[in-house]
Structures are given as structure tokens and as C-alpha cells.
Amino acid sequence: APARIAVTGLAVMGSNLARNLARHGFRVAVHNRSSARTRALVEEHGHEGDFVPAETLEELVASLQTPRQIIIMVKAGAPTDAVIDDLVPLLEAGDMVIDGGNAHYADTRRREAALREAGLHFVGTGISGGEEGALNGPSIMPGGSAESYAHLGPVLEAISAKVDGVPCCVHVGPDGAGHFVKMVHNGIEYADMQLIAEAYDLLHRVGGQTPAQIAEVFRGWNSGDLESYLVEITAEVLGHTDPETGAALVDVIADEAEQKGTGRWTVQEALELGVPVTGIAEAVFARSLSGRVDQRTAVRAALGASEVTPAPDDSLVEDVRQALYASKVVAYAQGFDQMRAAGAEYGWDLDLGAMATIWRGGCIIRARFLDRIREAYDKDGDLASLLVDDYFRDAVANAEAAWRRVVVKAVAAGVPAPGFVSALAYYDGLRSERLPASLIQGLRDFFGAHTYRRTDRPGSFHTRWSGDRSQVDA
Ligand code: 6PG
């Protein structure tokens, strides 16, 4: 019998996705550039389901029922284009190419248009959940046409994670919408991890606690509002001892965070869209700063390393918990703003409640409070910000005093907390009756005659700064 669907690219994500498909009863054709991997997969996991190994792309294509569905699981960028180029001549009108890598959404838009031109379907889909998720149920964010989803959706929904019986997979929107949403997911993942790292740093350096003690704190937090995969695994990592030295592993790991680029893309796109995603931006820059080892060394040598004297107090742990929660709400509010703005820009008509729904399980940022976000957008799809939803408004208001105390303590102690600090600045910025942007407009008008608007009547104005300083209509 022909295979139902195919996977090409059998590194860990691709293999696990193929196994997930097979385990769900789909006859799955598998292919890898070097066929040793294909053989290894079938030898090791052949008993899990129905695999059809293919040595070549031609064989892969020939093994499929029509219209064909082929999932590409290779590195984003040029390697993905190379596979598409090899594949397209082998396909027939109506066949579907699915890219499950972390592609840039603009590449996905370009590929979708090109394949549509050739009579083919192209679905760029975000897949989150790492190796574990790919195997046991990821969160899946497919873009592409509604027609594509009608054919592909049932398969993806079957292999996705489920929360309360609801699949963590929905048709996100046309062309690059799925990869855009996955990109923002990753950006939020960066912000979330940065905030967690700052919480750890404060408990460690201001609170004087050991990693093992902080692991216990996070374990406790994971049974409350902060319940999430990232908080859960923070307890695991902090509680782990390095077998070589007997020290906490976190004290042995080099403090230089790496990044593959999706966080940076999120910020670049946010800059284009004019959406302040300060939480994600601070997280990306904090990783960059950590990686500038030579500069860090030089500055420490010249200025001396900052000294932080632990100053634990009874409220620190609870205050940090509240600050983490409030800052996290801000980071998500910003990420959801960005998705809304992109939806408007590209005509995607994104259902933000549905995005929260499919992030409840399977993905890296899965968290209890995504249910609250889903409820918020289900109640009002046009929310001005997540921060104005009743639940989040009250939650952040309750956390506000603790949040401010934590920011003050971090600043006073000299522990960098860019995530907490900038999240609070954003919150205060949105709520300010007047912003000093008025002065910025005045300065722009002074040096460049860039004009300003007035609060009391319509129109654009310019002050003759270098003349008699009278105001003229611009
Ligand atoms: C996921 C992850 C996954 C990957 C990150 C890591 O959703 O499963 O986000 O896509 O692990 O891209 O990104 P960095 O290497 O940039 O931290």
C-alpha cells in the first residue's frame, strides 16, 4: 500500500516526528540524504509502526499516495531551499510540501508563492516541543492555505499534544502565518527564560541561596500561578549536581548563552512593525552581552568586578515570584501584540485565543496561565492589551508592589535584571497620562523642523526656533 505521508530529513526532530506519525497508525515514508540514518531509524524503531524507507527522493515520491504530502525536516535557510528544489520537479499538481523547520516567515511566504505558482501546496509549519515533543506530541502551528489544512490538518492534529482533549494544533493562517507565530513563540520563550534566570540570580546573589535551595523554590512555584514547563525544568537543572566536581551543574556551565536566531528575528520584525517587545529584546541582548566574553573580561579588569553582598529578607522569595509573574504577563502581552500587528499587516486574521490554546501543551512555553490568555481573548478578541483583561489586570495590580520592591533591590544590589526592570518600565509607560515624547517632538522640531501636533487642536505645527519663535502651521 502507498504511504500516507513522508518525512525527509531524519535528524532527531525528523526521526521523532516520523515515529510519532507511525505510532499514530500513519504509514510513513522516510528519507534522509545519507541513507544510513534511514536504515538506522527503521532498524531501531521499525516495530513502532509502518515505515517505508526510501533511498532517494524519487523513491520517496513514488511510495506516496496522491495527492502527496512530504514533510521537510532540515536546517532552515539554504538547506531547506535545496530540498525543495530537488523535490519540486518530482511532484504533480495538488501535491503538498510541508516545511516543519524553524524557517523565517518571509522565506515561507516566498516559497508558498513560488509553489502555488507551480500548482503545488506549500505549508510552513511551526513545531515546538523539542525532541520529546516531536515524538510524544508537539504544539503545531501550520500556515498555508485553508485548502491545504483541510487535507493535512487531521494528520497534524492526531500527532499533536492534547490538553483537555483539544489538539495543540490549529490552522494559524495563510502563507507564512504559522512560522511567524512560531517565531513569536520562540521570542516569548527567550523572554520567559531570561526572567527565570533573573529570578534565580536575585535569589542567589541577593537572597544568598544555593542552587539546590533555589531548585526547591521553583519546585514550589510550579504548583501555583507560575506552573509551566520552563519553571519545572528550572528546578531540574538547578537541582542537578555535576558528577565531576560535585558542584551544582549551573555553577560549572559557562555563562555564555547561545542563540540560533529566532529570538533575534522576533525583535527585528517587531522593530519593523513598531511593536515594543521590550521583554524579548532585553532577553536577546542579555544573551548577546553574556557572549561578549572578551569585553566582559576587559571591563571587569578595568573597573573591577561588581560586588554583591547578600541581603536576604523575609519577603524576597515571594516578591521575586510576584515580579516574575508580572513581568511574564508583560512579555506575553507584548508577544501577542506583535502577532496582532503582523496579522493586520499581512492580512492573516489571526485568532489570538486559538494561539494561546495551542500553546497550552506540547511546546516549550506551555503553562497554566495560557488558559487565562485563551479566556481573555475568547471574551474579547480585540483586547487593547492582555494587561486590560480583568484577570491579568488584577493579577498584575496585586503583584505591583512586590515587583517594584524587586526592581529596587536588584538595582540597589547591582544585580542586572533587565527583564524585570524593562517590563515594569513598559507597564508604567503604558499607564502614564503624559509621556516625555512631547519633549522629543519639541527637540525634533527644533533641530530638524520635523513639526509637532498639539493636544488642544488638530493640525501640524512648527516653531520658528531660530527666528522669532512664533508658531506656524506646517
Ligand atoms: C521549540 C524550541 C526550538 C529550539 C529553539 C532554541 O519550540 O521547540 O523553541 O525551536 O529549541 O529554537 O532556540 P535557541 O537556540 O535560539 O535558543
Automatic annotation (TrEMBL):
Transmembrane segment boundaries: none
Positions contributing to substrate binding: 102, 128-130, 185-186, 190, 260, 287, 444, 450
Coiled-coil residue spans: none
Gene3D superfamilies: 6-Phosphogluconate Dehydrogenase, domain 3 (1.20.5.320), N-(1-d-carboxylethyl)-l-norvaline Dehydrogenase, domain 2 (1.10.1040.10), NAD(P)-binding Rossmann-like Domain (3.40.50.720)
GO MF annotation terms: NADP binding; phosphogluconate dehydrogenase (decarboxylating) activity
Keywords: Gluconate utilization, NADP, Oxidoreductase, Pentose shunt
Active-site residues, Swiss-Prot/TrEMBL: 182 (proton acceptor), 189 (proton donor)
Role summary: Catalyzes the oxidative decarboxylation of 6-phosphogluconate to ribulose 5-phosphate and CO(2), with concomitant reduction of NADP to NADPH.
Protein name: 6-phosphogluconate dehydrogenase, decarboxylating
